[in-house]
Write a structure and sequence with these properties.
14 strands, 5-stranded mixed sheet, alpha/beta, single chain, 4-stranded mixed sheet, globular
């Protein structure tokens, strides 16, 4: 088949050297495989036997750490990383040295952050009606959906022959997860979704408590998969029953699930293992990154924050999806969401049956006297308007500081 090349942006940080080492190891494995087919001219891997050719860029000596590159830059700015590698400008110094990066369209790429505990994916999509390729970004939500769908498919292959019954598999999200991702998991993947408080320690604990196979990824690409003792007991019991049934779909699923914990680092914060997990799933499913991206389209959203005199005035429920104090805040937010939905229905323009409910929540900052706002709707204008209304309500009802926030445009 066609060689698969995965460009990996190391954010000019510590992950770059490990990707280099891994690329060399995969190249040797590829070169030693049958027929030595698909070898790359780059010398970084052959793409044979399902292994993608890893092409690392942005090492510590190429440019400034996390400056215009890396997972955080890509996720927050929705922009591709600058490529410092090969420009001849990098000496590993600071941003003040005016090192010049360049943008190059990539068909399959991932960005680590500086200490390699987060990963996001991206590519440039060629649209027939566009003069230039469109930059597309796949965040932790998309990773979690891909992994959960794969797990559900493999477990159902076992369940079809009476195995793995009663095993709890699902995904833990926070209120910040895009509503389209949540809807896809519930309605298409048909996996359980738990909404936990924002923060890795909370989602990790929820995955451990609620599931035997629990997936969680924050939007920034920080996450993992957890496996309970019941999962390993299921593997042993299934192996006894399927012994000798080679080629049976259930046996294929068993072997995949048996190998999976060897690829997943259950101690959260290993972007390289997460990167390999995603690539392995795409290979097994025969998908391109564009096909993965096409599972669902994110709903437009907007985030902002409002300065207040005392953030302790604002309290929320455990999942941070609803405000519990002040008592008049949540009813006002509910009214704003209902008004947003009514305006969208009245405006038409989209298929009314496919309009997603507008969604908004607020939560106090953990570090400053401010309240963070998240708003989501079927159009960007509606999401902006809902975020503006929520910010105005916070300022009015919760002791806002200074002038009322200006509408977001």
């Amino acid at each position: 088949g066609k060689e698969r090349i995965l460009t990996v942006d190391g954010a000019c940080g510590v992950g770059y050297a490990k990707i280099q080492t891994l690329a060399e190891m995969l190249a040797k494995l590829s070169a030693g495989s049958a027929g030595n087919a698909g070898n790359s001219d780059s010398g970084t891997g052959g793409g044979n036997g399902g292994m993608a050719t890893l092409r690392p860029i942005n090492g510590p000596d190429d440019g400034p750490l996390n400056d215009g590159c890396g997972a955080e830059h890509v996720q927050k700015n929705r922009l591709p990383p600058l490529i410092y590698t090969g420009t001849g400008t990098g000496t590993g110094g600071s941003a003040g040295q005016n090192q010049q990066g360049r943008h190059v369209p990539m068909t399959y790429a991932a960005s680590l952050d500086g200490d390699a505990d987060r990963v996001v994916f991206h590519y440039h999509r060629r649209d027939a009606h566009a003069a230039t390729p469109t930059f597309r970004f796949l965040d932790g939500d998309k990773i979690a959906v891909l992994v959960t769908q794969f797990l559900q498919e493999e477990l159902r292959a076992l369940q079809a022959v009476g195995l793995a019954t009663g095993l709890r598999c699902g995904i833990v999200q926070t209120a910040y997860a895009n509503g389209a991702a949540t809807a896809y998991v519930r309605n298409t993947v048909k996996a359980d979704v738990i909404i936990a408080k924002t923060g890795v320690k909370y989602v990790h604990a929820a995955a451990h408590h609620h599931f035997d196979v629990g997936v969680y990824f924050e939007a920034n690409g920080h996450g993992t998969v957890l496996f309970s003792p019941q999962f390993y007991r299921m593997l042993d019991a299934s192996e006894d029953q399927l012994r000798g049934q080679y080629g049976h779909r259930a046996n294929v699923a068993l072997q995949r699930l048996r190998l999976l914990p060897s690829l997943v680092n259950q101690s959260v914060g290993d972007a390289i293992s997460d990167l390999l997990l995603v690539d392995a799933i795409l290979y097994l499913k025969g998908w391109t990154v564009e096909e993965w991206d096409g599972l669902y389209e994110d709903l437009p959203s907007r985030q902002c924050k409002v300065q207040v005199l005392d953030r302790s005035v604002i309290r929320t429920n455990d999942s941070e999806t609803r405000a519990t104090a002040p008592s008049n805040l949540q009813p006002a937010l509910d009214a704003a969401m209902a008004a947003s939905d009514a305006a969208l229905r009245k405006g038409g323009g989209q298929n009314q049956q496919h309009l997603a409910p507008s969604r908004c929540f607020v939560r106090p900052s953990g570090t400053e006297n401010a309240v963070r706002v998240y708003a989501e709707a079927s159009t960007q204008d509606a999401a902006d308007a809902l975020a503006s209304e929520a910010a105005a309500l916070l300022h009015r009802l919760c002791g806002g500081v200074g002038d009322p926030p200006r509408p977001i445009v």
